[in-house]
Amino acid sequence: MKRMLEPAKTVLLILLVVASFCLTAMLWSNQPNLQFIEPAQYTESKPVKEKTLEQLVTPESVVFHYGEERHTRAVATDAPYSLIVSEMSKWIFLDFSPFALSNEKWGEIAREKLGLEVRFRSTVPLSIVSRLVTFRDEYDSGIKGIDRLWLYYEKDEDVVYALFLSTEEGRMMRSRTSISPKDLRESYLASGSSMPEQIMKVVRPERTYSVLEGPTPIWSMYYLPKNQMRMQQFRYSYVPVTNERLMEAYFIDQSLVRQIMERDKTVIFTDGSRSIQLRAEQQAITFTDPAYQQRAQELSDEEKVQSAVTFINKHLGWLDDFHFERIKKSYNEKDLITFRQYVGAYPLVSTSEPIQIDTIQITSEAGQVVTMSRSLLDLDKYIGNNEQTIMSGPELYKLIRDKKLADTEQITNAYLAYQTVIGDGYVDLVPTWIVELANQGNLYILARVKQGGGGAHGLE
């Protein structure tokens, strides 16, 4: 019995060893089919068009000064404007210094000297201006931004100087330029000689210029066409942005998004962090993302605007043609950045409730977008147009006086724009004079001359 027990143990041991090898082989050759969970990725929208900061910061107009009270003006749809904007990248500025002018010198430069005035829509940070032209030297004028760049020819020195003007700050600086007097006369001014003649209107300061002595605040002025002009009234169809595009554009993981319906029928989409407030009757959204301070250092205005541009590029994009309008501090010390929509050379202005399609407004903190408000209407197909005769500057002033709409001495600016009128599936763009008044609301005056002669329609 003992002799049979030993061989049995040996056989059992061999079977155990073989079984062990078989199980090991099965484990090696049959790995479990593991599924790795990918981290959530931010799904970027597919914008209609991305833009660079340089494409969004462009002059509002170019005014040509010929002396003897003669001025002409070119806008974005005019060839002289395109020439000047293309030449700006070649301009070099050096020897910067703070500057002040007497009232007499101001009048001489504005009314008598050959010059070229590049006008922006509002104050543009100097660091952004330096991306449009070349600054050869450092500047230390204390000016944060400018709304005008004025080139003028100083005959006694045979030099073209540049004035960097900040109406908002009431300050300026001067520099020498690389522009030759010959180029100013024979290229730039020659190109603008056929543009519509303008009347220069100087904004009245607290004291009349005639009683000011010594250095004076910078002159602020605007320009009105001397004669009637032609302008198109357009009608466009529009395409609303779908909820699917919104979800794709603004949320990291769409499966986490839930929908909340408020009592006033406002719809809120949220993933627990960021949210979109959708107002159907306004065809607009407000995007909100709690600010997270990633860095404490102070950002420049250029960096703040660039951050806003990058955000829009990645989130729904620029549905239509927009341009940078301004950056300013909000009531709670956050940065409010505005981009305005344009058709051709003219800005869109929405005054009628509830639908407004004229701006994209961003509130940012330390360069991070906290809120953004924008329209969901994308101008789609051009349906039709109607050419209209637009009242001149003198006719505009006469209308304002005759109808007692305002004191013309209080006008600080006047410009042409398209007022939006939303219909069922279409948007009418109506030529309108926007008249800005000191310490008052704006006037919105239909710009077309009445058929049958005499006068024009006025809306306040």
Automatic annotation (TrEMBL):
Q: Where is the Regulatory protein YycH domain?
A: 7-440
- Origin organism is Brevibacillus agri
The family database entries (Pfam families) matched by this protein are listed as: YycH
Name the UniProt record assigns to this protein: Transcriptional regulator
- Output the InterPro entries linked to this UniProt entry: YycH, YycH/YycI_2
